[in-house]
Design brief:
This protein is mainly beta. Helices cover about 5% and strands about 50% of the residues. It is built from 1 helix and 11 strands. The strands form 2 sheets. Strands 2, 4, 5, 6, 9, 10 and 11 form a 7-stranded mixed sheet that branches. Strands 1-3-8-7 form a 4-stranded antiparallel sheet, with no helix packed on it.
Amino acid sequence: EVQLVESGGGLVQPGGSLRLACAASGFTFSNYRMTWYRQAPGKERELVATISRFGSTYYADSVKGRFTISRDNDKNTVDLQMNRLKPEDTAVYYCAAAKSLHDIVVGTPEYWGQGTQVTVSS
């Protein structure tokens, strides 16, 4: 059974930091591009950051310089370090896995996690 389990969400003040983690199982993790998406209330889901099998990264302009995506192919995990958080970062964050960049870009990865809530508020 494929599982993507996110953790690390919570409530944080503006300017603070959180580290999200996603633990994968049930598929060959090292063969997949891993991605974090987010969806805020009333808004469309957006791609936050993605990392290829070999560690190449891409970030949305809104998070570039503040967020860092990383992966550990031995532990089957992908993390998202979020610094200098802003209220507009408030959303449910989802971990996803896909073999192709195209699937990531169009928002149709093979596997999804259940999501973890991040709330940035004073």
